[in-house]
Amino acid sequence: MTDVDPDETLSRLAMLCSPPPRPALAGATESKFGAVPVPTSHVRLIATYGTGCFDEFLWVFAAGAPNAHLDIVERTRLMRAAFRGKVLHDLNHVPDDCRTVPDELVQWGGTDNADILAWIPKGEPDDWPTVIIQAGQLKAVFSSGSSTATVLGLLDGSLRVPFFPSDFPDIRPEFSANPYA
After folding, report:
1. How far apart are alpha carbons 131 and 91 in whole angstroms?
2. Cβ neighbours of residue 81 under 8 Å, at least 6 residues apart?
3. Distance, CA of 123 to CA of 24 (rounded, Å)
4. What's the pLDDT score for residue 101?
5. Which of 176, 84, 94 is nearest to 132 (CA)?
6. Bridge partners (DSSP) listed for residue 133
7. How far apart are alpha carbons 154 and 63 in whole angstroms?
8. Exposure on the CB side of residue 135, measured as CA atoms within 13 A
9. What pLDDT digit, counting tens, does each position of 40-52 carry?
10. Sign of dihedral through CA atoms 70, 71, 76, 82?
């Protein structure tokens, strides 16, 4: 699942799942993760939706989020600390040119089940694929698309993750900055 056209991918996502009229944090997306730039498609995703949750399950993060639970930098720091010294064998199943170690991953999203969505920062940022890592069991699913393409694939059913709940996604997915407020 690669992005044919990132703008078209975002448009298809917006048609499937309406963005909020005033996305929270839309202005804080220019930040970087340390010296690593945030991919342009993710900047556009956050500018359109803000940080928050798709279908009361799939959360997207942004650099500079006031809530540490939604901040790429903080979530990545915690993920790397949790994985330090561990071997994630399922990361060996990603394509050869995307092989990585946990200390290189950048977490851009997560789920209510504590699954991790992370970029594999290989090549140009706009070409970074995503790995979805199952909480606890540490199984992984590879997505060659951007964060936006991955979210779209998950919501339209073209990307299936065997460890996600069977009732996700909903027929009419919704986005909320805080679905539990």
Report:
1. 8
2. none
3. 30
4. 72
5. 94
6. 116, 140
7. 23
8. 10
9. 999 999 999 999 9
10. negative
Quote the pLDDT of residue 6. 76
CA angle 130, 35, 125 (to 5 degrees): 35
* Nearest CA among 165, 172, 151 for reference residue 49: 151
Q: How far apart are CA 73 and CA 19, in angstroms?
A: 24
- Residues 6+ positions from 172 with CB-CB distance below 8 Å: none
Residue in this structure with the two tokens 């995703």, named with its chain if needed: 45
Model confidence pLDDT, tens digit, residues 3-45: 568 789 999 999 999 999 887 664 444 444 555 678 999 999 9
DSSP 23-72: -BTGGGGG-EETTEEPPHHHHHHHHHHBSEEETTTEEE-BTT-SSGGGBH
Q: Which of 139, 102, 141 is nearest to 120 (CA)?
A: 102
DSSP three-state, residue 93? helix
Q: Which two tokens stand for residue 143?
A: 């997505």
Fill in the amino acid letter for 109: G
Q: Which two tokens stand for residue 30?
A: 């220019």
Tokens (6 digits) for 63: 């650099």
119 CB-near residues (< 8 Å, 6+ apart): 39, 105, 106, 108, 128, 129, 130, 147
Cα separation of 129 and 135, whole Å? 19
Which structure tokens are listed for 88? 């994630």
